Amino acid sequence: MAMYRITKFTAPNMDKAQEISESMRDILESVGADFIDIVSCGNGEGLVVAKYPSQAVMDAATETAKQAFGKMVEAGAINGASIQATTGEVLMSF
Fold first, then answer.
1. Is residue 94 part of a domain?
2. pTM of the full predicted structure?
């Protein structure tokens, strides 16, 4: 069953977060996700929405996700204390 990981964060520099994400495109595209969307919600708030084909694929991608967030935190693009991830299984789609 498909799985989602949705991660909330605040970003004092959303442009820098986007730039770092873009620099990691090849790595992020290789983790097996169906998609990974980075969403700006306005007012410095953002989301990463990632859909994976299975729990195993999502689990295998976890370390790469942590590395990506670590680079953004280290660069001052996002607030590390604000990162909140949640996961869930798709029950149905329309």
1. no
2. 0.91
